[in-house]
Design a protein that fits this description.
The structure is a single chain. This protein has 257 residues and is mostly helical. It is built from twelve helices and two strands; from the N terminus they run ααβαααβααααααα. A two-stranded antiparallel sheet has the order 1-2.
């Protein structure tokens, strides 16, 4: 979708004075080379809303698919998860698959680049203007969303988690009793407490002097919830699943023998 830039308007939505626009574009107003590091924080808001796609979808989607399979297998391999009613398993899957997948990206140090989404062709614009032609209403990945995702990844890379820390942190995120629609709420709450206790024990062995690491890990884990499943789906999996519903595919993987 194309966005009309309104960054040249004042607070009341009126275009800024012509003289101001001319002066702001003068050569003397350009930032010096020493200030180039500060450009990302002052980007035009319209630029941050640009729709983007993976620059190398073939390679990145293949890695993403492998991580997603490992994520579902991890959930299936937990005996406590298998003891839950199938409906609760499905509800928890829907709630946590995206954060777990992002943890997988962090654990395997997956990096990726994006590029602008090309504008639709004139023929497609004409077809989409017809009332009998409808396109699925999906969330489109934006530059702002991708930057938020990369910020989460960098946060986990800076924490330098061990495989056991990743595993127990995933457990605390899978067994979330606050997810609406659960039946075995008390059982799931107990499982979350067990996962948190196990994570604390691992941290006590690996980082005995870092008493605030447990809180930092939980805080970093909560930040993953700011990344929408729609962004993850459209960015990493839409190129390979086409019109299929990803959650249906995940459910098939979860309940397959």
């Amino acid at each position: 979708m194309d966005y009309e830039c309104r960054c040249s308007e004042d607070a009341n939505g009126r275009p800024n004075a012509i003289l101001f626009n001319i002066l702001s574009q003068a050569p003397n107003s350009e930032p010096s080379r020493s200030n180039l590091n500060y450009l990302p924080s002052s980007r035009c808001h319209c630029e941050m809303r640009r729709t983007v796609r993976l620059k190398t979808p073939g390679d990145t989607c293949q890695v993403a698919s492998s991580i997603l399979v490992k994520t579902i297998y991890f959930m299936k391999s937990l005996p406590a998860f298998q003891q839950l009613p199938p409906k609760d398993q499905l509800v928890l899957l829907q709630s946590c698959w995206a954060p777990l997948f992002i943890l997988g990206l962090a654990q395997e140090h997956v990096s990726f680049e994006v590029e602008d989404m090309p504008a639709p062709s004139m023929l497609k614009r004409i077809l989409l203007n017809r009332q009998d032609v409808k396109e699925p209403d999906r969330e489109q990945p934006t530059l702002a969303g991708v930057q938020k995702l990369k910020s989460c990844l960098k946060k986990f890379w800076s924490l330098d988690l061990s495989p056991k820390e990743y595993a127990y942190l995933k457990g605390t995120m899978i067994f979330n009793p606050d997810v609406p629609g659960l039946r075995a709420v008390l059982f799931i709450e107990g499982l979350q407490q067990e996962a948190q206790h196990a994570l604390k024990e691992v941290l006590a062995l690996l980082h005995p002097e870092d008493h605030g690491r447990f809180a930092r890990l939980l805080l970093a884990g909560s930040s993953l919830k700011t990344i929408t499943p729609g962004l993850v789906t459209e960015l990493f999996f839409r190129p390979i699943i086409s019109q299929a519903h990803l959650l249906d595919l995940l459910a098939d993987m979860l309940f397959s023998r």
